[in-house]
Amino acid sequence: MSSVFITGATKNTGLCIAEKFASEGYDVAISSRTEKELKRAVSYLSDKYKVKVKGYTLQLDSVSDIKNVFAKIEADFGGLDVFVPNAANLGVDYDMLTVTEEDYDAVIDVNLKGTYFCCQQAALIMKKQNKGSIVIISSIHSKECIWGRSLYTASKGGLNALMRSMAIELGPFGIRANCIIAGAIRTDRWDNFTPEQIAKRRANWPVGLESTGEDIANGVYYLGTDLSKTVTGTELTIDSGLLICLLPFNGGKH
Ligand SMILES: NC(=O)c1ccc[n+]([C@@H]2O[C@H](COP(=O)([O-])OP(=O)(O)OC[C@H]3O[C@@H](n4cnc5c(N)ncnc54)[C@H](OP(=O)(O)O)[C@@H]3O)[C@@H](O)[C@H]2O)c1
């Protein structure tokens, strides 16, 4: 049976990715910082899809914790076919001029260092199988910038570069590496927006709609499986057309 591991997958995009793979018959491993959230998501996924689902508490800023969790996953699933580093500190509202070392570590240690060592551990398992696929969830923030996101932007830009390095170094072991460059994704945070705020956001994008978690999951499934068996070192942009706009979208007229 094929298996997938998705970090930070008890809700939002990560849970949608878990659902996509479970619906296709994959055994699913998910992680979270909290046991309670894990239990709820594991019961939900296993009841709905009748596949093997296991949850692991994981602190992404701890390399020893990462190594322990991957060892458990290898023992529990007998290998690992697809790894999706999804969990992230969204790093909002950090004024660059006042960022502290603690602030820096809170974002970079989770998003970049944590993902790096997770990918290393995933690759060590996949190398034994001479096959595997790593799909990093990156962001449009790795390409374009707004105020207050310098740490998040640096972490996601670093992940794009890491992905390309992995594609080169791990290709000889049958391991592919790719990124999703995600634009706005609808999450539980959108429940707090008014219809006017949602309409204002949507007006910024040529497609006029945010992505759903399912839209992202479909891209991850493509990159994670043999549907894309000759694709590596690439970025799949799922962003409602935001990145192609040279000027604010304004309905396409200027
Ligand atoms: N939402 C968007 O519009 C958007 C746009 C572009 C890219 N993305 C990317 O898509 C992925 C999923 O985003 P999402 O919006 O669905 O995320 P989310 O639910 O806010 O976060 C995903 C998971 O990351 C874990 N997490 C959050 N803060 C953390 C921290 N400080 N330390 C360690 N883990 C932390 C949480 O898992 P636990 O609490 O269970 O540990 C959370 O469920 C992320 O990589 C994000 O950067 C999102």
Provide a descriptive summary of the structure in words.
- The protein has 254 residues and is α/β, with parallel strands linked by helices.
- It has one domain: 3-Layer(aba) Sandwich (Rossmann fold).
- It has seven helices and seven strands.
- The protein has a seven-stranded parallel sheet, with helices on both faces.
- Helix 1 packs parallel to helix 2 (35-49).
- The chain starts with a strand and ends in a 16-residue tail after the last strand.
- 43% of the residues are buried.
- The model has no long low-confidence stretch (mean pLDDT 98).
Strand content: 5-15%
Judging from the principal axes of the Cα atoms, what is the shape? globular
Overall tally of structural domains:
1
State the distance separating the first and last CA atoms: 53 Å
Quick one: CATH superfamily? NAD(P)-binding Rossmann-like Domain
CATH architecture: 3-Layer(aba) Sandwich
Name the ligand types.
NADP nicotinamide-adenine-dinucleotide phosphate
CATH fold assignment: Rossmann fold
* Unreliable residue runs: none
- In the CATH hierarchy, what is the class? Alpha Beta
Please trace the helix and strand order, writing H or E for each element: EHEHEHEHEHEHHE
Cα-based radius of gyration, to the nearest Å:
18 Å
Helix content: 40-55%
Instruction: Enumerate how many helices there are, as a single number.
Output: 7
User: Structural class, from helix and strand content?
Assistant: alpha/beta
Order of strands in the sheet with most strands: 3-2-1-4-5-6-7
